[in-house]
Design brief:
It is built from 10 helices and 12 strands. By secondary structure, it is α/β, with parallel strands linked by helices. The strands form 3 sheets. The chain has a 6-stranded mixed β-sheet with strand order 5-6-9-10-12-11.
Amino acid sequence: MQFLPYSQTVTVPNIVVDGAGNDQTVLTLSHWPKSGSPVELKADTSTEMVFNYLDFPRFRVQAEVVSNNHFDEDGLAGIFAIVQPDAARRHRDLLVDVARAGDFGVFRQRRAARIVFVLCAYLDPGRSPLPADLLTLPYAEQTGRLYLQLLDLLPALLENVDDYRALWEDEDARLTASEELIEAGLITIEELPDLDLAIIRLPEDLSNRNVQRTTRLRLTECHPFALHNRTSCTRLLLLRGQSVVFQYRYESWVQLVSRRPAPRVDLSGLADELNREETSGGHWVFDGIDQITPELHLEGSAATSMPVDTVVSRIQHHLGIGPAAWAPYD
């Protein structure tokens, strides 16, 4: 089995790992919405689905090519498992942990988080050891080149990520700092299981930091790995002074197998409702129910003019009564 960039698979039978298939795809091993993957192989991550495929020979298909239409850690770990199955089996638990850290921001082994931090550094134009022109290519071409480069890098990361300390130590320190704030009770997490909601309260004097997260640069006051490792709730409400941000986690976008997150509720109507009362000069926006990790947030102002408790209660109300608006399952 060999990897080919997605654009080169349109004329050959192929397996797609973690993304969407094309006309020549004979098997999709993906937790993506409506992927059509065999139910017997389904798992929380696409990497686990690849291992299930390797474990059960009766599901073998006639294809010598594997690909993916986007780059991320779950895709990388899963494709590595299918092109180097013997090496992957030796690192099975770690590869699955890398996939979970990359997609969901949760990890069991710290080295899995560090591998994700290294991979994110490779995608950061300001830090990447890759040729500078690679990260300026059109996305489809860039994706193929990234897989070719990082499939070669991954074995070394699995064997000893400490060799790449310069690429992970800064973000690892930010993760440690966030964990310590939670331990000290300066960041609190209140879970409302009936709503699958975690209310996270952050100190007002907590400074923003750039944090690399699953190949996307985010501005956050608390490292998401620290939060996600502490709560399984897939709806997060972050409060910091007069700042209110609600977010659906990635787990509710995909076909999760181990549990069923509360379905997503479209909060566009709530954004309109809040805008009728907002006087800060900002504008409430909901990113859209089909986005991977959509947020309800205030743009154009750092603080809402409304009482925070009022905004919180309205969010809870809409989550409680709103109809399911996203159905990823086959």
